Amino acid sequence: MTNDLKFKEVYVDMSRLQSDILFSGIPFIRRGNDVERSYINYENELITMRGGFDIQRNDGKTATIAYNEDSRDVEFWMIVWDDQEQ
């Protein structure tokens, strides 16, 4: 018997996600696509994201959870910001 989980494909219909369920018990701020932020990834590339959901730890550290749906591909990010201007 093994405890390994194996997934061939995972599909999540992002348009049907309900933020009140996804973030149940966690305060969040929904950011519209008019909010644009950039960061440099591990390959030293500048990445720009729009919108998403901001969550904040008790110490003030902010993370943004966002996704981009393009035809059949879905990109999902969680970025923890070193410094965040509000």
Description:
Helices cover 5% and strands 48% of the residues. With 86 residues, the chain is mostly beta strands. It has one domain (9-21, 28-80). A four-stranded antiparallel beta sheet has the order 1-2-3-4, with no helix packed on it. The chain is globular, with a radius of gyration of 15 Å. The mean pLDDT is 77. It comes from Caenorhabditis tropicalis. This is FBA_2 domain-containing protein.
Quick structural summary:
The protein is mainly β and 86 residues long.
Keywords:
single chain, 86 residues, mainly beta, four-stranded antiparallel beta sheet, 1 helix, globular, FBA_2 domain-containing protein
Strand order of the largest sheet: 1-2-3-4
The global form is: globular
Distance between the termini: 50 Å
* Average residue pLDDT: 77
Structural class: mainly beta
**Sequence stretches where pLDDT stays below 50 over 5 or more residues:** none
Number of helical stretches of at least 4 residues: 1
Proportion of residues in β-strands: over 45%
Biggest β-sheet strands, sense, barrel = 4 strands, antiparallel
Radius of gyration: 15 Å
- Roughly how much helix do the residues carry, as a percent range? under 10%
Strand/helix succession:
HEEEE
Instruction: Give the total of domains.
Output: 1
The number of distinct β-strands equals: 4
